[in-house]
Amino acid sequence: MIGAIAGDIIGSVYEGSGLKTKDFPLFDEHCRFTDDTVLTVAVAEKLLYGGDYVELFHDYFHAYPHAGYGGSFIHWAGSRHRQPYNSWGNGSAMRVSPVGFACESIEEVLAEARRSAEVTHNHPEGIRGAQATAAAIFLARRGRAKPDIKSHIEREFGYDLKERLDDIRRWYRFDVSCQGSVPQSIIAFLESDSYEDAVRNAISLGGDADTMACIAGGIAEAYYGGVPEAIRTQALARLDDRLRGVIEVFSARYRGAGASL
């Protein structure tokens, strides 16, 4: 899952900037982890130790209250509400990467992705975005070819993945919905030739850069067999001991979910 977290950190300074190029510094001096990383680690902790998604999301929010959460999540977690708020936002997809690495069948992936999403994002689009992202990671780490991953996601989730990045880049604008950012993030992975290229593709669309790079980065990590050591090292250096500790335990238990190239 370090691929998702590195994508979040790299993209953090480009969110909402409208950047339309792949030529940018990979780690700007102001890069930081955001809510994408915090909640990804919360999901990893749930998969490692059990517990309750609601309680973990609440606890991580209160531990990292300034990480850049959406308004609905702030209200939900800040008040410790237990009922979901029917979100279709991409928050369900940004945090789901550990599911794709930890589960051992596609059925298990889909069930766990739903559980991780529906505590907040119980709208069908919120669940679909989480499941599609986790499924892509699962298929990638199982060695499936890109055409197979593409056809599976299109068939099972109804996403249209045929448009090319060059065409998307011309019209794409900031969009925090699952339906308006998850397909484009998957395409960013499909057109990549390396982990770094997938992250650059996602950010270059000029949208919700940190989340889209998080989604594309998680899939790319699974497909390319890890994250370049220099990128992994820089990402981990920007985390605190608590976050880094969960990642290290998760990576040790689920081989390939934190490997370096």
Describe the structure.
- By secondary structure, the chain is mostly helical.
- The chain has one domain: ADP-ribosylglycohydrolase fold.
- Helix 2 crosses helix 15.
- The two termini are about 15 Å apart.
- The model has no long low-confidence stretch (mean pLDDT about 95).
Write the layout of secondary structure elements.
Layout: H1 2-11, H2 35-49, H3 53-63, H4 71-78, H5 91-94, H6 97-102, H7 106-118, H8 124-141, H9 146-157, H10 165-171, H11 182-190, H12 195-203, H13 209-224, H14 229-237, H15 241-253
Helix pairs in contact: 1-13, 1-14, 2-3, 2-15, 3-4, 7-8, 8-9, 8-13, 11-12, 11-13, 12-13
- Structurally, the number of domains stands at 1
> Roughly what percent helix?
55-70%
Order of helices and strands: HHHHHHHHHHHHHHH
What is the CA-based Rg, rounded? Answer: 16 Å
The top-level CATH class is Mainly Alpha
Number of helices: 15
Which ranges are low-confidence, i.e. pLDDT below 50, for 5 or more consecutive residues? none
Give the termini distance in whole angstroms: 14 Å
What structural class do the secondary elements suggest?
A: mainly alpha
- Any idea what the CATH superfamily is called? ADP-ribosylation/Crystallin J1
The total of beta strands comes to 0
**Overall mean pLDDT score?**
96
Quick one: biggest sheet?
Answer: none
Architecture, according to CATH? Answer: Orthogonal Bundle
Proportion of beta-strand residues: under 5%
- The CATH topology is ADP-ribosylglycohydrolase fold
